[in-house]
Amino acid sequence: MDVLRSPDGDPVVPAVGDVVGLPPWLRQLPYRVERATPSPIPDWLRLDGYLIEADGRHRHRRVDVPPRQLRRLPARPDTAW
């Protein structure tokens, strides 16, 4: 699993435009990050962005996730980006 990490091994905040895989308890579709901010849950992130469906449709979602559970995915084209 290619977790988003800094050179020193710590989890990092995804940048705007990154495509990430969400933790296993959420939908397993590519997720494009539009904003990342601290979550009300300690040590978690609040991500605003959208899921990219197989047919290219987008489903906007705000999710709270632990950064260690985010996986880097290859960038994929979508109509909004």
The gross shape turns out to be: globular
- How do the helices and strands follow one another from N- to C-terminus? EEEEE
Structural class: mainly beta
**What is the radius of gyration computed over CA atoms, rounded to a whole number of angstroms?**
12 Å
| Main β-sheet, spatial strand arrangement | 4-3-2-1-5
Question: What is the mean predicted local confidence, pLDDT?
Answer: 85
| Relative helix content | under 10%
Distance between the ends = 25 Å
Task: Work out the number of β strands.
Answer: 5
Note the total helix count.
0
Low-confidence stretches: none
- Kindly estimate the percentage of residues that lie in beta strands according to DSSP: 35-45%
Biggest sheet: strands, sense, closure?
Answer: 5 strands, antiparallel
Structure description:
This protein is an all-beta fold and 81 residues long. Strands 4-3-2-1-5 form a five-stranded antiparallel beta sheet, with no helix packed on it. It has strands at residues 19-21, 31-38, 45-52, 58-65, 71-72.
Give short descriptive properties of this protein.
81 residues; 36% strand; five-stranded antiparallel sheet; 0% helix; mainly beta
